[in-house]
Amino acid sequence: MAAMAALQSSMAGLSLSSNSFLGQRLSLPSFSPLPAKPTLKPCQVVAKLKRWERKKCKPNSLPILQKMHVKVGDTVKVIAGRDKGKIGEIAQVFRHSSMVLLKDINIKIKHMKSKEEGEPGQIIRIEAPIHSSNVMLYSKDKNVASRVGHKILEDGTQVRYLVKTGEVIDSAENWKKLKESKGKVEEAAVAAP
């Protein structure tokens, strides 16, 4: 408001001809401040997305996470895409985009430029994520892919099982094996450098 008053006083101080311009009184336009539009809080997505992608967010501006039928450590069979029919283990799950990363499946080639002069470029093979709808849980014992079901055991724990075979996936032994394998990987990573 102070800036508007200063502008009006400087306009009034112009010496055209004592308050008249060609016989008419000079009137200054009155400036009124524009109503401020309420700004919406932008969605701050934590997940790494392409810049043109926008994910739906909750009111606290966190992305909505998708429910998935697979977890880390599950054995799955690829049912669609270039690697259809391959069997692998899930290494990582991305719940914001409903994608999974399988060990040694969906390998992509990335060409890397040299970072320093005199250093040669590289061709790196990396595992790319697959959408979770393109994988199905797989039973190693019966060699069959099946949908997943949920049931509650006598002790009150809820577990996942394969519909075709009835094989329970979320057993205590499976979780122990998974934790042991993670521990070995972390120890190897610490010993490597």
TrEMBL record:
One of its GO terms (cellular component) is ribonucleoprotein complex. InterPro entries: KOW (IPR005824), Rib_uL2_dom2 (IPR014722), Ribosomal_uL24 (IPR003256), Ribosomal_uL24_C (IPR057264), Ribosomal_uL24_CS (IPR005825), Ribosomal_uL24_KOW (IPR041988), Translation_prot_SH3-like_sf (IPR008991). GO terms for biological process: translation. The keyword Protein transport does not apply. The keyword 4Fe-4S does not apply. Pfam families: KOW (PF00467), ribosomal_L24 (PF17136). Residues 69-96 form the KOW domain. GO terms for molecular function: RNA binding; structural constituent of ribosome. Keywords: Ribonucleoprotein, Ribosomal protein. Belongs to the universal ribosomal protein uL24 family. HAMAP family: Ribosomal_uL24_B (MF_01326_B). This is 50S ribosomal protein L24 chloroplastic. It comes from Tripterygium wilfordii.
